[in-house]
Amino acid sequence: MNTIHGVTELEKYWDAFQEWRKRERLRTRLCRLSEKELRDIGITRGEIDYVASNRAIDPRGVRSAE
């Protein structure tokens, strides 16, 4: 394995780890909201995992600018 390939692979894993952490932070924040707060933003408690895993997709069918 050459250095450039190794750095690229390391960056790929680091980026994936950072994305996972972002999803987990979002999931945690959403889980802390009350039912009323979730309704206000248009999602149900059952949609939290979906929303956290698919941040670019709005469960209401609206595409985000991300």
Automatic annotation (TrEMBL):
Pfam families: YjiS-like
YjiS-like domain mapped to chain residues: 14-49
Name recorded for this polypeptide: DUF1127 domain-containing protein
